């Protein structure tokens, strides 16, 4: 019987590398893969600053080829994991969590907007615009990588309207932030990588919320006292330990379809007083019209369109002044308000038409009198 041939040192080295690769996650292995995938594996092992420096050394063509390759790979992976549902096949009968509402029909002749497949993965610190095509989209379209960089925070931003602990994953690290609504104020803490610390922050913010709800004093007074009493009870410091901050909300749904919020202020010292002063100014401007629960039509039962227009102009000026004093561009904030007004204008006009039709049907004795012209 022939004796076994001794293995060469190169063969032993190859077996050693294969065994070592078995212990490495699939997306981090560097052997048996394309150049772009190996480069991604190397970049995944670096920190955010090092990855940013390495990407800055690549040419624009190299960055474009790298991202196109990885986006196509991610689309393929997600289509397999979606149990046979692809973006092109998404419809009302599919799982709502898998449906792509932004995919236009081909007969409309419009270019496809970024779908969840193409926004699912992005390279950090890319600042160039490039053209990429999703395999399931009818036409290629221009992808703004600045939006891609924000894609990883879309889920967190969606959670910011809720209360509790929010989680995000960035550069391979998981961080936690705590949010809590206390009346018209929304409190937030700093990001931390410890889940236990985040839960401790959540207990503190929930204690502040309970104190605010149980107090009978004015909103500003009970908010200020609740923060001081809860921090004194827990022994934590607002700025050094929690980085506690807050924003205040004032209703403006009739004019812009959403609430207006102040800039973010620290919940301690002079910043706390400045934030409360900003809220007080917005509240006083908003009190010119009814503040209770109502929609566009019921608000017209109490105020004329002219009165509502005048109240909005005062509220708008105060809102712009507050953001400008906080160091923001007045023109940029004004453009944002203009966009929100334009989106809400059809609902306002529809409500006014319904009110006029309903007003004309009422008997003369029950007619409400306010100017017929719409400013």
Describe the protein in words.
- Residues 1-12 have a biased composition (Polar residues).
- Residues 1-28 are annotated as: Disordered.
- Residues 13-22 have a biased composition (Basic residues).
- The protein is α+β, with helices and mostly antiparallel strands.
- The chain folds into three domains: 27-151, no CATH class; 163-234; 244-375, no CATH class.
- Helix content is 50%, strand content 11%.
- The protein is built from 14 helices and eight strands.
- The strands form two sheets. Strands 3, 4, 5, 6, 7 and 8 form a six-stranded antiparallel β-sheet that branches.
- Helix 11 (269-286) runs antiparallel to helix 13.
- The longest helix has 32 residues, at 330-361.
- The protein is globular and about 75 Å long.
- The relative contact order is 0.05.
- Residues 77-161 and 371-375 have low confidence and may be disordered.
């Amino acid at each position: 019987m022939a004796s076994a041939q001794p293995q060469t040192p190169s063969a032993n080295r190859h077996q050693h590398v294969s065994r070592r690769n078995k212990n490495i996650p699939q997306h981090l292995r560097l052997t048996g893969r394309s150049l772009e995938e190996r480069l991604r594996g190397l970049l995944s092992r670096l920190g955010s600053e090092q990855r940013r420096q390495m990407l800055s050394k690549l040419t624009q063509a190299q960055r474009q080829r790298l991202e196109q390759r990885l986006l196509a790979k991610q689309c393929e992976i997600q289509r397999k994991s979606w149990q046979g549902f692809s973006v092109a096949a998404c419809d009302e009968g599919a799982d709502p969590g898998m449906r792509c509402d932004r995919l236009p029909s081909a007969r409309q002749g419009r270019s496809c907007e970024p779908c969840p497949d193409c926004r699912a993965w992005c390279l950090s610190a890319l600042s160039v615009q490039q053209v990429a095509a999703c395999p399931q989209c009818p036409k290629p379209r221009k992808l703004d990588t600045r939006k891609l960089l924000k894609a990883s925070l879309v889920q967190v931003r969606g959670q910011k309207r809720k209360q509790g602990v929010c989680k995000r994953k960035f550069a391979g690290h998981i961080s936690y932030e705590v949010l809590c609504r206390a009346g018209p104020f929304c409190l937030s803490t700093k990001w931390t990588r410890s889940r236990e610390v985040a839960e401790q922050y959540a207990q503190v913010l929930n204690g502040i919320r309970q104190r605010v709800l149980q107090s009978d004093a004015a909103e500003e007074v009970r908010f200020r006292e609740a923060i001081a009493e809860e921090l004194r009870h827990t022994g934590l410091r607002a700025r050094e330990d929690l980085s506690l901050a807050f924003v205040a909300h004032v209703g403006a749904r009739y004019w812009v379809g959403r609430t207006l919020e102040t800039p973010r202020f620290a919940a301690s010292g002079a910043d706390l007083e400045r934030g409360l002063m900003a809220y007080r100014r917005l509240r006083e401007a908003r009190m010119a019209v009814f503040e209770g629960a109502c929609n566009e039509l019921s608000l017209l039962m109490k105020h004329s369109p002219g009165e509502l227009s005048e109240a909005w102009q005062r509220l708008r000026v105060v809102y712009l002044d507050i953001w400008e004093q906080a160091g923001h561009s007045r023109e940029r904030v004004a453009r944002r308000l203009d966009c929100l007004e334009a989106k809400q204008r059809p609902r306002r006009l529809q409500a006014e038409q319904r009110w006029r039709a309903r007003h004309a049907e009422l008997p003369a004795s029950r007619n409400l009198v306010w100017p017929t012209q719409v400013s």
